[in-house]
Specification:
The protein is an alpha+beta fold and 268 residues long. It has helices at 24-30, 46-56, 61-74, 90-102, 120-134, 146-152, 170-176, 194-197, 199-203, 234-244, 258-266; strands at residues 14-15, 18-19, 31-34, 108-112, 138-142, 156-160, 163-168, 181-188, 208-217, 220-227, 247-254.
Length: 268
């Protein structure tokens, strides 16, 4: 709907102050779009395809050639610019898709699941490219892969059944919807019964609501500490360990993930 491919059944969308139903052609000039199913011509080589895309947007002459060189460089396509698209890996095809979405220098870039189906190395490459683009463009990223949102986005909007249920930075949403916290602790001690000798001392700290012993072997013990929301007990825990003569081998504070926030907001 934002890209003018489908009209809204109700409401309206403004892009840069323009109603996209009343000013469809003007809005399309301002938008670059990479759909989830990347629509590429597999029998065309990279440069020919980008030139074709540029011509569709009205570019021509030296200005078009300059823009094509710029896109090939920005999207890291120099080594494959004369290859047929059908010969490229999916990561390179996504790069070609991004290049065609940007060839007319749009103000807004809309990407639908841009890392879907990529291997870990390709994901990092596309993620870094999106971050680079975001410095100069407004980038709207539509995805269900929330780890990508965490790594890429400055602002997150969660929509459930057509309504916005959350809007903020990843850190803001994680803080706002954070429940009771947990902290993993591994200690080295000379105590023979850590459950009875260590757990009560840990429970004595303020804000700890529970202590679970995960494992114990020789002089090593692992615990999960359940902490009241909004409390950071790491300094108090360190001081307790020093006073008791325990050696802290690991202290890991578990943060609320965007997946957990999404689950809370979208399930009844």
């Amino acid at each position: 709907i934002i890209t003018c491919y489908m009209p809204p059944t109700s409401g309206k969308v403004d892009v840069d102050g323009l109603d996209n139903a009343e000013h469809s052609l003007e809005v399309r000039k301002k938008i670059g779009y990479l759909p989830e199913m990347n629509p590429l011509y597999m029998d065309m080589n990279v440069v020919d395809y980008l030139e074709y895309s540029a011509q569709l947007h009205g570019l021509k002459g030296s200005a078009m050639q300059h823009r094509l060189k710029e896109m090939v460089h920005m999207c890291g396509l120099e080594d494959v610019r004369h290859k047929d698209i059908g010969e490229l890996s999916k990561g390179y095809r996504q790069r070609v898709g991004l290049a065609q979405a940007m060839v007319h220098d749009p103000e807004v870039l809309i990407l639908d699941e841009p890392t879907s189906g990529l291997d870990p190395n390709q994901i990092v490459e596309i993620r870094n490219l999106i971050k680079q683009l975001g410095r100069a463009k407004t980038v709207v990223l539509s995805t269900h892969i929330l780890s990508e949102v965490q790594a890429t986005c400055d602002r997150v909007i969660i929509i459930n059944e057509g309504r916005i249920v959350a809007d903020g930075s990843p850190d803001q949403l994680q803080q706002e919807f954070q429940g009771a916290e947990s902290l993993t602790l591994e200690l080295k001690t000379n105590l023979s019964n850590p459950l009875e000798q260590i757990s009560p001392r840990l429970r004595s700290l303020a804000s700890i609501s529970g202590v679970d012993l995960l494992s114990t072997k020789d002089s090593f013990s692992r615990f999960v500490l359940h902490v009241d929301k909004g409390n950071d007990i790491r300094e108090s825990l360190f001081r307790l360990a020093v006073a008791e003569g325990w050696v802290i081998l690991e202290m890991h504070r578990k943060a609320t993930t965007l997946e957990e926030v999404f689950h809370k907001l979208t399930t009844a």
